[in-house]
């Protein structure tokens, strides 16, 4: 009796739902009453864990009032989820329930709009059901392909890695159906969505972890990315559309993975990428490439960009040392020294900076010798020695000692060891006079 009372109470609640917005109750009174009774009854059955009966009851609504309300399909999904957990399900019964589960999402899209949100949920549900079932990969691919036509904000964070997981499994199982090009294209689409989510204010740390996962899946496929693939499949497209940012990002990232960074397309793609999304690491990659290619004006530009984009003193130091090294190559010794000292102000005591200045002095003998005083001419080596000493570079200190003025030179010019002597030329520094041993 108690159950009947509860049931009647809930049925009355179902009848009151007719006043709520969004419900499409039948106009026919008899059908209207039957529909309200079925709607309330399956709710009771759900609350009492009678999911098979609830499934039978809610199917009546599907057959007779398919556009009643979105909640009947949302509840249907919950009911089917419970039935799929039952033990000893036959394969045919399990398959039928899985089909019914995905069908509930189709009906929501058919009758109640909000396609992006529902498709997002359907794709993830289908992935969980079938990601180990190769016969379903084509269907899953179509779901995700359609989902990724929507904006990044319509794609849930939990639908990033599954798409790449599917691409990886599909390629391994059926490479004739999903090619390497397809896998790379999917990786690129997911990366673009992640980038857009970050721009929109998403959780950067969490999204970066998702990026790391999809990158790991791609790398797990071994030689799927090769220099030949980049050159044959991507570079021609890039040459015809040099402003294509997504293509530039692909070429740049794939070149890193395939170790094709010595190719000209790596730099050209990187520059397009940098214009849209400047970063310290990207500036460094471009600066170093141009430096070793002997294009010092270009390398200087990107080392300066590194300084602007540096996140800490260590990065700023590296940027300044890059600038100093470039000034050396350009023959601007005085400017190179100035920048090296600026680097030392950021990272006091850094041996790299002292070594650079020491090298400048050591290599300035021919430029600075006046031929009037052997002691003054060889003072550049005394200056270099002091810089190498600060760097802790004993090998170069010893090399400098071999070039110090001899005791005879010092005596002949009436000078004294330990006294101060000014190094002329561009160096213009005072050093302690020492003799060659």
Automatic annotation (TrEMBL):
Protein species of origin: Marinoscillum luteum
Record protein name field: Tol-pal system YbgF family protein
InterPro entries found in the cross-reference section: TPR-like_helical_dom_sf
Signal sequence interval, chain numbering: 1-21
Keyword set, alphabetical order: Signal
């Amino acid at each position: 009796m108690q159950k009947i009372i509860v049931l009647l109470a809930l049925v009355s609640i179902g009848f009151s739902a007719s006043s709520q917005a969004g419900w499409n109750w039948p106009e026919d009174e008899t059908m209207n009453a039957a529909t309200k009774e079925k709607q309330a009854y399956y709710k009771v059955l759900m609350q009492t864990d009678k999911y098979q009966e609830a499934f039978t009851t809610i199917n009546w609504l599907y057959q007779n009032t398919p556009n009643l309300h979105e909640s009947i399909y949302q509840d249907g999904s919950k009911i089917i989820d419970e039935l799929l957990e039952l033990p000893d399900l036959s394969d045919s019964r399990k398959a039928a329930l899985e089909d019914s589960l995905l069908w509930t999402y189709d009906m929501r899209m058919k009758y109640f709009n909000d396609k992006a949100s529902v498709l997002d949920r359907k794709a993830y549900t289908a992935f969980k059901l079938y990601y180990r079932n190769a016969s379903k990969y084509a269907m899953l691919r179509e779901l995700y392909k359609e989902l990724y036509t929507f904006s990044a904000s319509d794609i849930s964070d939990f639908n990033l890695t599954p798409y790449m997981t599917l691409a990886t499994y599909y390629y391994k199982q059926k490479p004739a159906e999903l090619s390497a090009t397809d896998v790379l294209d999917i990786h690129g689409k997911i990366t673009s969505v992640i980038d857009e989510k970050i721009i929109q204010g998403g959780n950067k740390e969490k999204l970066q972890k998702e990026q790391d996962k999809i990158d790991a899946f791609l790398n797990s496929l071994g030689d799927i990315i090769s220099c030949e693939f980049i050159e044959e499949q991507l570079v021609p497209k890039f040459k015809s559309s040099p402003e294509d940012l997504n293509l530039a990002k692909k070429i740049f990232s794939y070149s890193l993975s395939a170790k094709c960074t010595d190719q000209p397309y790596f730099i050209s793609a990187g520059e397009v990428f940098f214009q849209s999304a400047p970063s310290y690491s990207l500036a460094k990659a471009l600066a170093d490439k141009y430096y070793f290619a002997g294009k010092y004006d270009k390398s200087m530009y990107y080392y300066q960009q590194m300084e602007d984009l540096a996140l800490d003193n260590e990065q700023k130091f590296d940027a300044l040392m890059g600038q100093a090294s470039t000034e050396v190559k350009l023959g601007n010794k005085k400017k190179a020294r100035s920048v090296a000292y600026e680097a030392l102000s950021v990272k006091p005591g850094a041996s790299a900076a002292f070594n650079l200045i020491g090298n400048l002095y050591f290599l300035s003998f021919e430029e600075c010798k006046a031929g009037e005083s052997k002691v003054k001419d060889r003072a550049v080596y005394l200056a270099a020695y002091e810089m190498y000493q600060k760097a802790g570079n004993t090998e170069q200190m010893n090399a400098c000692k071999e070039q110090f003025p001899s005791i005879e030179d010092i005596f002949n010019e009436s000078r004294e060891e330990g006294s101060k002597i000014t190094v002329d030329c561009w160096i213009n520094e005072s050093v302690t006079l020492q003799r060659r041993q």
